[in-house]
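Troubleshooting entry. The earlier prediction with alpha-D-galactopyranose gave an output that would not parse, so I re-checked the input for stray whitespace and re-submitted. Clean input:
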Amino acid sequence: MNRLGTLMGAAMLATTAGAAIGQTDPLAPIGQWSIDARGSAPVPPMGWNSWNAFNSDIDETKLLASATALVTTGLAAKGYRYVDIDDGWWLKRRMPDGRLIIRAANFPSAATPDGATSFRPLTDRLHAMGLKAGIYSDIGRNTCGQAYTSNFANQPQGRIDEREVGLYGHVDQDIALFMGAWGFDLLKVDGCGIRAMTPANPHVESGDYRALGPLIDYDTLPDTDIAGVRKLYEAVAVAMARTRPAHDYVFSLCLWGGADVRSWARFVGQMSRTSQDISPDWERMLHNFDSAVRRELYAHPGSWNDPDMLYIGTGAFTADHPVEARTHLTLWAMLSAPLMIGYDLRKLTPALLDILGNRAIIALDQDPAGNQAVLAFDSDTVQILVKTLADGDKAVAIVNRTAAPADAVLTARHMKLRPDTDIALTDLWSGTISHFRDEQPLHLAGHETRVFRVRGVAARAQGLYLSEQTGRVNPAVDGIVEPEADPLVHRGVLPWRSTRGDGEHPAYGGWGGARADSTPYGQALKLHGMPLANGIGVLANSRIEVKNAGYRRFSAQVGIDDSARDRRMPVRFAVYGDGRLLKRTEPVPYGAVPVAIDADVTGVAIIELVARGAADPRYPDPVAWGEAALDR
Ligand code: GLA
């Protein structure tokens, strides 16, 4: 398809995929892959961002020091290329023409004789260093710093309208400036301006800022205008594609998992925050990890889950805590998360450089297959994550969430490898190579993550289970009727409120989303009393797109999962190839013997798996595409 075709396809899909705005039959096959293709992030973006290092107290000297360090330490050559300016860069919005003015006192190269200011000299300089440049805005009229921390350094100045530096009402103008005139390669768009500027906000009451919405009620998803929020972000995506027809940019959504962004971010931009802000504490890092780890089917080449920036170098992740620092990086790599360093690189030590620059771990993150790891074992103490790599190797991480030492047994089955043949493990932090068959006991220090690259013989000789290729499986319509908060995310103390509140109730919609090797609600897959070790669990009334990498045969054992609660509505399962019906079952009632589906997919580019239940159920039942696999 040509560029225009891609663009039109993307624009059309943006309104039909996911929440199915105004579409007649959201389960009708479309014969296309609907992950956003307007921007470009074939692998997770890597780089540096000013926020965790400096908050809003930023200037050109600090920024260039870290940019220079990226180059001189070799981190840039290893992939850390984006240098992102976060909150704190603006002086004001000039009126009446609405042009954004940079705080030139802090960014001297931005000064121009006419006072208009420009970041072009800075982005030119970063580009000349082989780096990329990122900038920050907000979808509302005001930014997070204005909304929550009025004593921040570098607050925008001037009259009320001059302090409205966010995108609201200025999308085309600001995007043309950022991505056109100023030449940025990445734009992070926060959402505080549509969340915090309620009429009851003291800053609004006092007349400092104008009220807007709120469109997002962060704590109460049903009170959030999800479609309205999506529309605002979609308008930014459209403006970016128009300004940069070469599609050589990253659109980074920052809605902290709110506004049910999980269900639609991948149709709009290249990365999307799954939680509130990370802080340099062990528990908080786990919270952010948890917000993404069960969303393995919502990350793909082109659009990634973003559990927030790295905090390696600070707090619980300093060089004095190498175990925790290594775990932090390893977990982000297993999640295929963007790797954005949040540290003042002037202070970088060889020990920290060794951690951030570990080539083997970076390679896991940047693996071109783009499969986010799947949880092969899950508990409050030990978790085992497995990621299938492009060359057929596996990466496995065994995580000890607790401060006490822990024992674990890694099995061939966790990695979908044959137990009766040799399995080679390369420890990616020590480089040590070992071999085992069947089972391998492991000892973990407190907070330790052991991570290995693994070579063995695949249990599925002729192909791959779908759950081993999550980067090619997109639950375009996942069947969720009303978004609910995910109860499996570890509750934390909000660092900025301590225990004065009642702790943090994660408000991240997504409970019931499609899962690999699990039901949507975290149970083991089971049909007619038969446990299924492999498969995709999803709700009825869903449509899953699968990119076919040259396989000839699709097979699965399907049915309504034994864990279903409604149980009254039979479900019909259909397989399409490039929009054409290949196979369809009769309606399958609850409790039936699993129905085998076998379809010839030779030459098919996009397979679609549709599970259709009753027209309008209150709670669609979970169904299983059990043992779903593609074979040569
Ligand atoms: C929000 C974002 C952070 C950072 C700040 C800036 O809190 O989540 O990542 O950008 O705003 O004010």
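This one parsed fine. Confidence is low (pLDDT under 50) at residues 1-21.
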